[in-house]
Amino acid sequence: MASSHQPKDFDVFLSFRGEDTRRGFVSHLHKALTQRCIRTFIDDNLHRGENISDELLKTIENSSASIIVFSKNYASSSWCLDELSKIMKCSKKVLPVFYQVDPSEVRKQTGDFGNELTELEKKIEDKTKVQRWRDALSRAASISGWDEKNRAGSTYLGALGKNVK
Hints:
By secondary structure, the chain is an alpha/beta fold. The protein has 7 helices and 5 strands; from the N terminus they run βαβαβαβαααβα.
């Protein structure tokens, strides 16, 4: 009989827009997590193509928690939004980080963040998918997270380490 409590492949799945955060914030976050022995998945490959891979979706499913780094251009990427939809569907521990973007702009999809989403939406024929993205953005941004006004980064990481192990 298979156990419903199978071990997870990763403690944390990092979702982020590479062009905004990969070489700065995310690389430091990844290093801080791994130094705390938190097994963290970071997609180091630049993507070609529009569709998220089944393997990446499985990685999301097989992670105990996800950190979503919302940044200015996050909503311009169908890849990021597909990851986010999957993360929110899995209903695991979700920790949003608002990097140089206001949480209310993500939640309400307004301002520059909302404009990026609107531009992407014009290119997408599947309006059901777009609605899933919008719902996932609203739900994720309603979760208490970390932003630059709330400089509790080390406390945040400490709490994460206790919650994913």
